[in-house]
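Milestone M4 deliverable, item 7.
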Amino acid sequence: QVQLVESGGGLVQPGGSLRLSCAASGNIFSINRMGWYRQAPAKQRELVADMISGGSTNYADSVKGRFTISRDNAKNTVYLQMNSLKPEDTAVYYCNADLRRRGISYYSQYWGQGTQVTVSS
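Output delivered:
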């Protein structure tokens, strides 16, 4: 009954910007962590950035200074602002949330369907 809906992917030129959004909906009691992963062709999936409920963030070294993760708790939505994009950023980006459902005593991880980001001239 939980769904993560992503938006904002697309095609952009090198040096450009994109803003990804991911809204969690359904029978949610609380969200511990939300974040973004990506997977490029022939590469393993990697953490891009995440944020826990207390506000602490983690970033991959390759995106530090260029990407910013933020969260709107009222909307159960996480954002990824991507600036100074490079061709190496081309990948499928996946939203991830560690959350607890109402009436359930434990946390589980959920994934969005993925959104394609292509950086090319």
